Amino acid sequence: MADRTATLDSAAKMPADSRVMLAHIMSEHDTNLYGTIHGGVVMKLIDDAAAAAAGRHADGPAVTVSVDRMTFLAPVRAGDLLSAHAELERAGRTSMTVEVRVTAERWNASGPVTEVATARLTFVAIDAEGGPRPVRPLHACGTADH
Questions:
Q1: Phi and psi at residue 36, in whole multiples of 5°?
Q2: Tell me: the pLDDT tens digits for 6-37?
Q3: Which of 18, 27, 39, 86 has the most CB atoms at less than 10 Å from its CB?
Q4: Would you say 116 and 75 are in contact if contact means Cβ atoms under 8 Å apart?
């Protein structure tokens, strides 16, 4: 229990402490039968970004418990640079909620950036045996600017 107490006694973290941005250029190998990027490819990028944000907050491994919300807003095409922006929204005793916003833009041109998907996922921090472990609280103000 000494390790748990030490973790809980640590200062709360800011949402910006967990912020992650992952980007990947979509290719023809990522397309579905309709010629757009397969939703599962987008979902993998979302889960990867959210897992990194949760792991940063937890200072160690965290696993996906649920995809609470997944919304596809616009199609993604081969040649688009897809960027997943993830940040912690909530921290419980062992669980964390991560918000992800996904944007697309052409990989080789400056131009419009389009929001193509949003998601909310829940993660649980785990110990070496795979059991839940406590995480630090999230700073109550909700942003690093306060």
A1: -105, 170
A2: 445 458 899 888 999 999 999 999 999 999 99
A3: 86
A4: yes
**Is residue 32 within 8 Å of 38, Cβ to Cβ?**
yes
Between the alpha carbon of residue 72 and those of residues 51, 95, 115, 117, the distances in Å are: 19, 25, 9, 4
Q: Residues 70-121: pLDDT tens digits?
A: 999 999 999 999 999 999 999 999 999 999 999 999 999 888 999 999 999 9
Taking the C-alpha atoms of residue 98 and residue 75, their distance in angstroms, rounded to an integer, is 23
**CA 45/CA 51 separation, integer angstroms:** 10
DSSP string, 84-144: EEEEEEEE-SSEEEEEEEEEEEETTS----EEEEEEEEEEEEB-TTS-B---PPBPTT-ST
**Greatest CA separation for the chain:** 55
